[in-house]
Amino acid sequence: MDVTLDVSRLAPPEPMQKVLEALFDLPTGDRLRVLHRREPFPLYDILRQMGYAWETTGDEGRFEILIQRETLPPAPSGSRQC
Question: Which of 32, 35, 53, 81 has its C-alpha lying 20 to 30 A from 71's C-alpha?
């Protein structure tokens, strides 16, 4: 299921804070659909570090970012994960 969060009218740093709060509460398997007035480049590094994948579409003051937890491929047999 997609959860929609519109941060397009919020002033920085509120959009980032709201997105991170929403990700914390996002049920496993769900996706967060973020509506924003600009492309949130600083958010991408944080998402990567947290293990999320995203897809961004839009331009000219209207962006949509679809965020979901990255799925990891199964570990090869006989290997250990740390």
Answer: 35
- For residue 72, the surrounding DSSP H or E stretch is none
Phi, psi torsion values for 73, nearest 5 degrees: -70, 155
pLDDT tens over the chain, length 82 residues: 899 999 999 999 999 999 999 999 999 899 999 999 999 999 999 999 999 999 999 998 999 999 999 865 455 555 444 4
Q: What's the predicted TM-score (pTM) here?
A: 0.83
Cα 44 to Cα 53: distance, rounded to the nearest angstrom: 9
How far apart CA 59 and CA 69 sit, in angstroms, is 24
Instruction: Judge contact between 40 and 46, C-beta under 8 A.
Output: no
How far apart CA 63 and CA 57 sit, in angstroms, is 6
Q: Could you tell me which of 66, 69, 71 has the C-alpha nearest to residue 55?
A: 66
